[in-house]
Structure to design on (1464 residues):
């Protein structure tokens, strides 16, 4: 099958993002609160600020940042049991929470934060693929807002906010490299990859999995090219939102 | 202190609701999905439908309805730890989930539902008092939408939806009976009461607590009068939303 | 059906309590230990005293009171799994524990207690309806005994014990308002209500549920009249036990 | 120190049991319900009957018997946290539950029971040493009553009840072998042993621990002699209760 | 059946141990690390050292020793679910952990240890009966190595190591008393006993269970004779390993 | 710093593996049992076989493979609390278990396996970096042995074993790309990457994280080149072990 014959169910070009919306001030209690939408995927990202740091950081003069990701039970097509009621957090949830935390720590200089902790919460209201990449992308904006609050309060000694970090999924569908997979594509992708990137185009994290087929070096390069294009556009959207 | 001297922080009359908004189709995966707002309190209410019933209802020919209530961690002024991560659901959460379930079972005729289960999820996005009453009020609308979906699918033998059920909080603040308490009032109320009511003005549930002072029969009557007025207005809002 | 035709399975008048027994000093380790019996319902209520208060009360100069309710597995007609073995406490258990705690805090002036904590435990040995109201009624007596112990030890600065608080269930059975429902009535009541009241007849808590039918204002008033009569008789029994 | 100089705090002879009381029909819901008292130790032992057996016994034609032991939180001198609230069952609890189950399975011929399950619950109302041995001794009586109920119902094919099994603690206190230790002795015993025995004087279980000192063969023999005397007296009490 | 006709599946004499191997320095991170083998049973025993003691020992001037036993999921013939994934530790595991801790505390003088804690971990790599007795026997050697490390570091004020403690299983198979039961014998033994003993032949712990038949005093004496022989040989093996 | 000046603590070349040992038949109960060593990292990998498949695969005609990874508490330099005792599995553990499962599913053709389940367990006996990559590499050999057992039993319809899959870590240390990081390097690496690869050099999984610095496309390519060399050597070791 040649590229000219391949069409995506939603009509997008293979290297095209879904429509992206970033709404700041979505709720008012947390220091930063953002609703991020990648097509039908909608994630509420909040950044809460607490004075003090966990024990392993105490008296370090540095701050800390941590993240929790979760899906509301009715976010998916079939309702999923609530993790609090099951009494167990799923491995997938832990894994994504850790990824979001690592990714956003690349966007903050903890030594400039003072002994404050920023807690990110990414709660998926509606899931249609790419929830973890939307979460990272939205969380950066919530983080920026929270740091602005901290600075206004005068509790931050330095300039903790670094240049933007964004994330996008790429995958191989019927042999074609595609950007920003919705659920329908994600569930049948041969290869699935999430890329987290800085504004300068440097990698924060790459996670690629050959779900139904392994991939070679050429495919990897093509996947990374398309992911780089996607992250650049997402970072532009982040900056526009923060200036808006 | 006479009533003429008493003013509420938000300027409302003592028997006045906060502004109420009910948005249907808030998300698209569940059969019913509603965002309900009582002032700054915002609750996402979804109704998911599953064929089959729990074991204790099997072969009864009847359906079942159950509910879960939860707060997002950043919904409150101070962030609260996520229940799934603590590994324990708080007593308050269990208590409200059970109240929502009982209240909405009064709005459905299970014998007309067939052996289907409706699962309500009420997730508080932003909390400013009255989250349980907003949850019940919004859940009725989500339930109505879900039953319409079931009927369209042809899996419902009868007419399971009953007349609306709505809920409101009332309380005694500085000796004055007030309707629909925001957090600031709720946390210092002498008496706190939640009333769940049908369209005909019959009680589904009354829960009144003398948090800082007991209350007598006259105060109870005044509380119920004001709650009745509030529930009637909420039911009008539910009906308007469902016709809209 | 008129009242003259309606008879209760145990032959009681509709506004008559089951026989009530309150046995002080039921066990000897806790500061207060009471066996309370409402007919066949038997609850062991203990009040244990600990110096110090939970963190949120520290350095307040005030004491604290908290309660836990539980059923022994063989208390009910069908044995129920032990909550410790299931690894989960049921919502119903949490709900009742919270109710008992709130109710008894109305019977104690925490500012007079010093920084001491009173822990109430209400363990149901045999269940036949009304376990939560028996628990509240018995716990008051255990609380009174525990405060007497504290005063004898000289660790209580003031007079923390307030006037008695008692609780009773009322309900509508086949259209008739009845007092103090045993299990057989409770399980088929159209309306079920628990009322917690002080000696002066003021309400501490009202929880009414239309389990199988809603109720109107007239029924509510009748339910409250009968509950008031019941609570007065229970308070007389509490006082007799404490003088005995 | 010679025996003539050694006196026990409660004045008993070294080979004397505390006063033993066995009350049948203590509660009415379970098939067997016994309150057993060894001095101040009081344990409620119930035997509940369920048709059917756990999976590993299915289609074996045999029955099953299992046991759970637990302490009420206020049973001990210092209140202990409730295991259901901690979310964890203590190792000691598990250990004793298993001991009670093994011991009572020696008193029942499972091949004569049919595919029925007997669930024993031993809940300590008041603890003063020897709770596990009191539990075993009382559970036998509850078991006998439950089997009688099963036989009356006609669901038991054979004669499952075997001759009595009883248990007692022995220990070394200040170098002296003592029978049936109360808490004060138990907590400072050099050696602590629990012996479970049949009517014919055969051992079902021996558990001896040198808590603060090891013990030799002569001491072991002396401990077993005294335990045998104790178990014989307890079996006489069981038989008297069952005939009563 | 006379002894002359009875043969064990592995050809051993009834009072003969399986081949015993004790490998010190099995892993290098913990202060003591031993692989102990009783025939096909293989247990990794480690002793880790931590400065400080648990709260109940703080400021006592004494140290503490505690133990945890566990089976790897594939250690047994049929794979068993991993306890961490089930979210629950089995009663058997708790019971053995407690036994190992008690037994090894008899091998250490806590008053000579300073405020240090020794944590023993006994992880069964391969199970063929006698895992708890192998664990105790191997843990003594790991403990000795860990104390030597502490002494080298100069943090131990005295001589905490006592004379060796070892453990062995004995049982009755087809009416014959046998030493050191492999799984095949253990699972069908009429009587099963574990004996923990010091070098001087004094008992630390005796746990005997009549699994399928009770036992009398003569059998008990025979069991103890054989166990004593086994423990002496195990202690010789421990000493050889520590000198090696 | 140029490459000529950079030396690794253990003297290896930057693209050199630690010494690798693969021991088959390490224990005898599971169908496959392997001890794999990458330098001081030692992981016991077992493959257990169960007839039948989980519910979501039932009646598919296909088999299933799943994996669990865990660390023994004393595997690390500082002892870590046992997950079963904490009652919670750490996110890191879940994450690695999922990675091992996905990686090994690439080495098996489930449609050829019949409705059998292979359960891999990777238990780290000693940790010195690269435990997850050693686990994957060793698990392939255990898997091969288990499939051979299944084929001998005649329960496998086809040829489920695919060509080998191996995994290795690479990282950037002081600006130099290094292969197979021990703990000392891993903990201070600027970039850390795990690569899972098939015999033909195709990627099964890439997980790269800029822990302390982001990385660009050139570094990524260098990391992948070195990882490819490492995986080829590991696959040679796997094949040698399986032929041995």
């Amino acid at each position: 099958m040649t590229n000219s014959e391949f069409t995506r169910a939603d009509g997008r070009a293979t290297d095209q993002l879904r429509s992206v919306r970033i709404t700041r001030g979505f709720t008012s209690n947390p220091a930063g609160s953002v609703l991020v939408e990648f097509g039908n995927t909608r994630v509420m990202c909040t950044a809460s600020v607490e004075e003090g740091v966990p024990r392993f950081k105490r008296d370090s003069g540095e701050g800390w940042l941590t993240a929790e990701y979760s899906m509301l039970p009715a976010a998916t097509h079939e309702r999923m049991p609530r993790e609090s009621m099951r009494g167990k957090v799923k491995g997938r949830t832990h894994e994504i929470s850790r990824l979001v935390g690592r990714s956003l720590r690349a966007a903050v200089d903890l030594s400039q934060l003072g002994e404050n902790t920023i807690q990110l919460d990414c709660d998926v209201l509606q899931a249609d693929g790419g929830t973890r990449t939307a979460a990272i992308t939205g969380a950066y904006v919530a983080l920026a807002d929270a740091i602005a609050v901290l600075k206004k309060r005068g509790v931050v000694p330095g300039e903790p906010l670094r240049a933007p970090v964004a994330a996008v999924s790429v995958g191989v569908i019927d042999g074609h490299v595609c950007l920003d997979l919705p659920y329908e594509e994600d569930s049948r992708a041969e290869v699935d990859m999430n890329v987290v990137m800085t504004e300068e185009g440097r990698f924060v994290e790459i996670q690629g999995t050959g779900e139904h087929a392994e991939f070679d070096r050429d495919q990897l390069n093509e996947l990374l090219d398309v992911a780089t294009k996607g992250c650049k556009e997402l970072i532009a959207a982040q900056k526009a939102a923060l200036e808006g």
